[in-house]
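Incident review: delayed structure delivery

Summary: a single-chain prediction request sat in the queue longer than the usual turnaround. Root cause was a stuck worker, restarted by the on-call engineer. No data loss occurred. The affected request and its eventual output are reproduced below so the record is complete for anyone auditing the incident later.

Affected input:
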Amino acid sequence: MGKSSLTNKKTKAAQKNKKKTFVISGVMAVLILGFVIIKLSLDKEAVTETASGDLKISKSEITEIAKFYPYKSGKTNMEVLAVKASDGSIRTAFNTCQICYDSGRGYYEQQGNELICQNCGNRFKLDQLEVIKGGCNPVPIMKENKTEDDTYIIISQAFMEQNKGLFRNWKK
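Output delivered after worker restart:
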């Protein structure tokens, strides 16, 4: 067997390996894309906008870790947070501070069992949501402003529209 024949065999083997690698990479990309699509569709089940524009949150998704639900009213981006309190009840609020909202940075992030205002640093206990009104804390969404059943919490489009001014400078 000559040197060129051996070189041709090596070249063909290398080309086969490149094709296999390309096919495997393509299969992996398709699988990853499939998982991303499935994840996105599951997230859409957790929060959906109904035909009427209401915000619909699946209770099964709510835990002791605050979950943030985006909502768009015209050009205004809004956000609702929902969390399970220590008594097992689900509490909801707009993710904006009653005092700091106008700064655009008056939104909350969770640390442990507290929400912390990103503008002034005020700490607010999760169990105080829907209990304390006024002051530097998240704007509560009270029982009279939402509808609940065993599966969903629904916040009406009209209520969301009434409160979009709280988010006019929001920079999250």
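Verification: The first strand starts at residue 47 and ends at 49.
Action items: add queue-age alerting; document worker restart procedure.
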